[in-house]
Amino acid sequence: MNNLSESGKSGMNLKETELTLGLPGEPRVGKACMKRVFSETVDLELGNSGKKDSSGSGSSMKKESATSRGKLVGWPPVRAHRKNIMTVKSGKYVKVGVDGAPYLRKVDLELYNSYEQFLSIRTVLDEKKLMDPVNGVEYVPTYEDKDGDWMLVGDVPWKMFAESCKRVRLMTRSEAIGLAPRPETKCSSSSS
Amino acid sequence: MSEAQAQMSEDDADLAAAAGGASIRTAVVTTGGDYSSPYPDQVLENVLENVLIFLTSRRDRNAVSLVCKSWYRAEALTRSEIYIGNCYSVSPRRAAERFRRVRSVVLKGKPRFADFSLMPPDWGAHFAPWVIEMAEAYRGLEKLYLKRMNVTDDDLAVMARSFGNFRELVLVCCEGFGTAGLAVVASKCRQLRVFDLIEAEVSDDDEVDWLSCFPESGTCLESLIFDCVEFPINFDALENLVARSRSLKKLRVNRFVNLEQLHRLMILAPQLTDLGTGSFSPQDHPIDQEPDLVSAFTACRSLVSLSGFRETVPDYLPAVYPVCANITSLNFSYANITADELKPVIRNCHKLQIFWVLDSVRDEGLQAVAATCKDLRELRVFPIDATEDNVGPVSDVGLQAISEGCKKLESILYFCQQMTNAAVISMSNNCPDLVVFRLCIIGRYRPDHSTGEPMDEGFGAIVKNCKKLTRLAVSGLLTDKAFSYIGQYGKLVRTLSFAFAGDSDLGLKYVLEGCSKLEKLEIRDCPFGDSALRSGLHHYHNMRFLWMSTCRVTRQGCREIAQQIPRVIVEVFRWNQILEEGEKSDLVDTLYLYRSLEGPRADAPKFVNIL
Q1: What ipTM was estimated for this complex?
Q2: Which of B264, B272, B191, B190 minimizes the C-alpha distance to B225?
Q3: CB burial class (10 A; 0-12, 13-18, 19+) of residue B361?
Q4: Would you tell me which of B105, B211, B316, B529 could form a disulfide with B552, CB atoms 3.0–4.6 Å apart?
């Protein structure tokens, strides 16, 4: 069952961590004499085990350096629960808002590969807007980029947009008039 | 982070008293009245009992019980809380026979290294034999605190139906139960005030809606903590529960409660003192306007503890500003935020005493903490990326800043990739109140990154200058010298943790010979062998346990220990080590040694050898 596969994996890892004459991972920075002291004491201390180490040291060390990039069991001492949690959340989330409507929506841009896909979600918000007594209001998607400038959505390649976009806002066409597609032209829009 | 944590580091001297008491007991008849006691003695005993009822400290009680037979009896009758630091140190029957009127039990099972997958899952620490014994002996039981125990749904069911006045259940780092067990507790324990699941592993196999199982009419709940539950809950049931729990003071929800839902709960419970905020992230399809979190937080005038933020988008953090000035405990250790995102929050937290954070805030973030949180007592900095690397986001710079700004620091846990002796020495000088110092340099055998020296002097300074130190965890490149410092100066140290450190047996010898108060010693991947093991023979019966994994102890060495000290159980296991072809090794993979009044346990799995 689970134990077997777990034990197999951990078995290899524990082998990695078994002490040999050399040290796994990082090269020793510091006094060379210390390294000597260490290996001397290891030799002295171990009767049969020492022999095992010295004869096998070459191969164990090789093994260790080969697998030193592999994960140690239980190191660093962070609980598995905590480690797992940190990998849950990823993605690039930006707020999407609509002028005049107080609600916002958080959207993961990494889920989309093109403007088409991204703008299709807009229809959900549009539907809401259609219920509004104020009809015939046209909305234009705009976004705030890394520099804090408000730009029209669609002028730069999708990837560039996804990377620099901090938040998105559907502005009314009248409000969006001041915006220009070029980054150099700063907008005077106060919405942010 | 419950206040029960304060108890966790306390030692369990019950056993010494029990061991002493056991020999006394053979002379004392359990049925009583075997000898005709003169009138004055009986009166004295009654008086004593009435006085002892007020004695709450465990250590004091242990001392009292050693005075004489009659004091032993009186103490046993008046002890209402028993603390069992190792569930295998004493049998349920023996505990129940000595202490007959117990209302509160603290029971701990596996050693801490089990949290890091160093212990096989079915090793033991079963709650079952305890609950069965207590169901008979302690019908008036009110409180149960279990840590690192294996608890099944059946155990919870037995508990729920056996104790009519049951009030508090706290399960810390436990596993083996699921929603069915939670449901039974919720529905049967009508007097329940505290229901806390802390870092527990709860299974959802049964998919029982346990939150709906609380009494309909209203509950006495004061604390409900389930932030570790890793599956969705019935929010409507939770909302309803909070609405009818007027005494609720602590509520920590899990990450399946979003921002809008949190808002609704806060509106219902502005009296909260402790709030775990769940995901702190809005739902994907908002149906209404963005909730007014700022008002909700402003209304929580009693809030002193904040946690959660499991999936927080930093934009929403400003909502907590209204409570910053009052909070004493803040757990951001699941919030992946930068220094700039932390600063506006932390600069208002003048009363902060406990702060847990991710190293994503970098040294700069820690400097901001040091600048504001002058009352800080406990700091924990967790790594967002737990892999070994040359540089990381926090380093000696952050530690130095904290040492200069937070002079009242008592407890620190600090993960980093690089450190200097200077920063550690600085902390030893600036923070004389340190009781717990745990530094984890993730890169193994890492020296001081600016001098290339081992980290001996830094840790040496800690044990030398921090006169109140009781718990120490070391890391980095360490020679036997570091251990000689620990043995020489660490006279109050009770818990020690070593990993990838030391040169020879001398290291461990220094510690075992010098640290006379040592109770818990956990060691992994250090070059300590049988000779070092032998040097602790005089002391093992005073310890709760010794753990050594992937060191240089042999089976024969362990056998010798087992033979030479009575009342110490020596377990060795080699549960996941696959011996290579032709390899014959006498080295044991893991040695776990603990004192016990009982013989070898009957529930040991096959891979565990008890010598």
Answers
A1: 0.83
A2: B272
A3: buried
A4: B529
Q: How far is A191 from chain B (nearest CA, A)?
A: 16
Which among A30, A71, A79 is the nearest to B452, CB-wise?
Answer: A30
Interface contact flag, B118 A49, Cβ < 8 Å: no
Q: Cα–Cα distance between B74 and B53 in angstroms, integer? A: 9
Using alpha carbons, list the distances in angstroms from residue B46 to A135, B27, B41, B42, B70.
Answer: 87, 21, 9, 6, 10
10-residue mean pLDDT profile of chain A (192 residues): values are: 40 44 42 35 34 35 33 85 63 73 68 77 50 60 85 86 84 74 44 40
| Structure-block tokens of residue B527 | 């070059």
What does the DSSP 8-state code read for residue B126? B
Tokens of B575: 């549960």
CA distances from B4 to B145, B353, B445 (A): 9, 16, 34
Q: Looking at beta carbons, which residues of chain B come within 8 Å of A65?
A: none
Burial class (CB in 10 A: 0-12, 13-18, 19+), B427: buried
Which three-class secondary structure state does DSSP give residue A157? coil
d(CA A111, CA A89): 13
Whether omega before A76 lies within 30 degrees of 0, making that bond cis, reads: yes
The structure tokens listed for B54 are 């007020």
Measured between CA atoms, how close is A96 to chain B, in angstroms? 11
Phi then psi for residue B509, to 5 deg, are -60, -45
DSSP per-residue codes, B160-209: HHH-TT--EEEEES-EEEEHHHHHHHHHH-TT--EEEEES-EEE-SS---
Quote the tokens at residue B309: 């933020």
Token couple for B52? 């002892």
Instruction: Please answer yes or no on whether A85 and B384 come within 8 Å at the CB atom.
Output: no
The two structure tokens encoding residue B592? 């776990």
Please spell the DSSP secondary structure of B356-416, one letter per residue. Answer: EEEGGGHHHHHHHHHHH-TT--EEEEE-SS-S--S--S--HHHHHHHHHH-TT--EEEEEE
Q: Which of A70, A58, A82 is nearest to A14 (CA)?
A: A70
A86 touching chain B per CB within 8 A:
yes
Which chain A residues are within 8 Å of B279, Cβ to Cβ?
none
Sort strands B590-595 and B545-549 into parallel, antiparallel or unpaired. Answer: antiparallel
Instruction: Please report the DSSP string for B317-344 in residue order.
Output: GGGGHHHHTT-SEEEETT----HHHHHH
Any B CB within 8 A of A69 CB = no
Q: Which among B288, B383, B575 has CB closest to A76?
A: B383
Do the Cβ atoms of A95 and B315 come within 8 Å? yes
> If you count them, how many residues does chain B have?
611
Question: pLDDT tens for residues B529-538?
Answer: 999 999 999 9
Considering only residues A39 and B194, tell me which one the structure prediction assigns the higher pLDDT.
B194
Torsion of CA B479, B480, B482, B486, to 10 degrees: 160
State the Cα angle at A63 between A57 and A68, rounded to 5°: 115
Give pTM, 2 decimals: 0.76
Q: Are B418 and B383 in contact (CB under 8 A)?
A: no
Q: Which of B336, B415, B445 has the CB atom closest to A26's CB atom?
A: B445
Own/partner contacts of B404-407, CB < 8 Å, gap of 24 or more, are B404/B370, B404/B430, B405/B367, B405/B369, B405/B370, B405/B371, B405/B373, B405/B374, B405/B376, B406/B369, B406/B370, B406/B373, B406/B374, B406/B376, B406/B379, B406/B431, B407/B374, B407/B431
Residue from A75, A90, A98 whose CB has the most chain B CBs within 10 Å, to mutate: A75
